[in-house]
Amino acid sequence: MKNSNDNKPTVIKAGRGIRAKLWRNKNQNGEWYNITISRLYKDSDDQFQESESFSRDELLQVAFVAQKAFDHIVNQNDESKES
Question: How many CB atoms lie within 10 A of CB 3?
């Protein structure tokens, strides 16, 4: 898991090129996260592309990064409450 500054997402990776990006948002009403889950792959020109489409065999990795994203957000919220 990679922590970053406010303008870059935290990235959580799983197998098969699947990753979750966690975007932290903040305004006068509080803080919240938006999450995107995607899959990296190489196209026929050997260039990396990103897709939000998953096969049946990739769903466990999607569930894994979703759980890790949830855990990260809960931990961040717990740390905020403690400070």
Answer: 10
DSSP state of 2: B
Looking up tokens 């489409």 gives 53
List pLDDT tens digits, range 47-56: 999 999 999 9
First to last CA, the chain: 22
What is the rounded CA–CA span in Å between residue 82 and residue 80? 5
Buried b vs exposed e over 19-54: b needs ≥16 C-beta within 10 Å? bbbbebeeeeeeeebebebbbeeeeeeeeeeeeeee
Q: Note the pLDDT of residue 23.
A: 96
Alpha carbon of residue 80 to chain centroid: 20
Instruction: Answer yes or no: are the C-beta atoms of 50 and 43 closer than 8 Å.
Output: no
DSSP 8-state code for residue 14 = -
